Amino acid sequence: MANFVIPTPFFESKFKRLVEKLPSIGNELVNLKNDLLNNPKLGESLGANLYKIRLSAKDKGKGKIC
After folding, report:
1. Residue 24: which domain range?
2. 32 Cβ partners below 8 Å, 6+ apart?
3. What is the rounded distance in angstroms from the CA atom of residue 29 to the CA atom of residue 45?
């Protein structure tokens, strides 16, 4: 079974606002997408095949990444 990433319209609208504040987040999101395609179980398991991933923003200077 092939894995793929589908951003929701809600995510895309929030992401556009983040890009204005944090320009490097676009590249970080591309890297996260590639990591998820290689390892779909990346992050903290929430159960029911759901996983939480925290993405640090290098422009912000703090945050977490799993």
Report:
1. 9-52
2. 53, 55
3. 20
